[in-house]
Amino acid sequence: MRNGRSLLLVDDDETTRDLLSMLLGGEGWQITVAKGGEESLRIVSQSPPDVILSDLQMPGLCGAPMATALRVSMSALSEMPLLIAMTATTASSAPAGFDDLIQKPFDPGDLLRRCEALWNGKLPATPGACAMDATEPVIAIESFYRMKAAMPAAQLRSLYDFALVDAEARIARMSEALETSDDTTYRREAHALKGSCAMVGALRLRTLASTAEETGLPSKPLTGWKPLQHFREELGQIRHMLESLLPSTS
């Protein structure tokens, strides 16, 4: 039975990789990263990890075909690494080929508990969906306090600042895509924004991004159009709440 802490993190978005590497590294995982399914195959052929944690929506090889390819490539191993899918979209079960599914945002400590359950031959509980309603706070309080307990305040503030600067850049690129009618870029940036927001518990902004990804470019009204104004207003709300929870150290 494997009981190590080596983990291959597979995600096409750099910000999500950085955020998760920071969070999971703080829990003692030894992190290697891959930008997609093809790169993950090259990495496991040289140094198979104990756990492979992969986003479900990526360009190229991903999802069930990726899981199949990984299992075929590692078929000679005496112990197969755990394959765990992660998503910021509501889902009820893991895709074919994966051992488990975990939904963003998740408690970094919960990942180890789920792995240990699988290593011990037990099925983990149903993935923890981050259901949201109108009463949800701007920042999910449980997620915030889990991270606050896991890292120094300055590091946590740095993580949130990093995520918010990235969100601003993605919203700007979505706005540019609106002006040029570039639906592909609009959806791609919305997808990446959805994932990074979920990891820091910005669930209202995650929902906005998820809707944008699903619906694509909105129609332009004749007058009074303020592209993505609701996204920018939500960013302002996040910053305001963050100041009350974790004042800037500068």
Note down, in words, how this protein is organized:
InterPro entries: Bact_response_regulator (IPR050595), CheY-like_superfamily (IPR011006), HPT_dom_sf (IPR036641), Sig_transdc_His_kin_Hpt_dom (IPR008207), Sig_transdc_resp-reg_receiver (IPR001789). Residues 6-119 form the Response regulatory domain. With 250 residues, this protein is of the alpha/beta class. The protein has two domains: 6-119, Rossmann fold (3-Layer(aba) Sandwich), CATH 3.40.50.2300; 141-245, Up-down Bundle (Four Helix Bundle (Hemerythrin (Met), subunit A)), CATH 1.20.120. It is built from nine helices and five strands. A five-stranded parallel sheet has the order 2-1-3-4-5, with helices on both faces. Strand 1, helix 1 and strand 2 form a beta-alpha-beta unit. The longest helix has 27 residues, at 153-179. It is globular.
CATH architecture designation of the largest domain: 3-Layer(aba) Sandwich
Name the poorly predicted regions.
126-134
Number of domains: 2
Annotation, overall tally of beta strands: 5
In one word, what is the shape? globular
Q: What is the CATH C level class of the largest domain, in words?
A: Alpha Beta
Considering DSSP H and I runs of 4 or more, what fraction of the residues is helical?
Answer: 40-55%
CATH fold node name of the largest domain: Rossmann fold
